[in-house]
Design a protein that fits this description.
The protein has about 160 residues and is an alpha/beta fold. It has helices at about 80-85, 115-125, 135-140; strands spanning about 1-5, 15-30, 40-45, 55-75, 90-95, 100, 110-115, 130-135, 150, 155-160. It has one domain: Hypothetical upf0131 protein ytfp (Roll), CATH 3.10.490. The model has no long low-confidence stretch (mean pLDDT about 95).
Length: about 160
Amino acid sequence: MNTVFAYGSLARLGGRPCTLRDHRCGWDVAMDNRETIPGYKVYVDPETGERPAVYVAFLSIRPEPGAQVQGVAFEVDDAGLAALDARERNYDRVDVTALVEPGLAGPVWAYVGSAAGRARCAAGRADGTAVVTEEYFARVPPGAEPLDLPVVPLLRRDVGA
C-alpha cells in the first residue's frame, strides 16, 4: 500500500491531517489550454464554447527549507497510484516519507510541480494569460496559499484518447 500527501484538490478526497516539512505551496504550475493532449482536458468559455488561449494554473508545492504545507494523507493501492500519476501530469511524484509529520509508514508520495508545468505557469504570468478556473478554486481546501491570479469561469472538457 502507498500513501499520498495531498494539499490541493486531491485533499478533498479526505485522509489523515498531516504536515509536509521543508516545502511551500503556491500557484505555480499550469497547463497550456492551446494544446490538445489525447486523454487529458481543455477548458472552454461557458458562454461562447470557445477555448481561450490561456495557461490554466493549479496549486503546487516546491522545496523550501523551513516552510511547511498542511494537507492530508490517504492510502492508495498500486493501480490507484498509477491513475493518480496519469491525472497529475503537470507534476512529478516524489517520495516525501521522511518529511511528513506525524510520521507515516512509507512510502509517502507527494505531487511536486514538474519543471515543464512551472515553465508554463511562468510563461502565462509573463504574458498575463495565467488564470485559475472557478471550479478548481472552489475545490481547493480553505487555508491554501493566497491567490494572486484571476479566477475565471471556464468549463472543463475531457479530451478522448
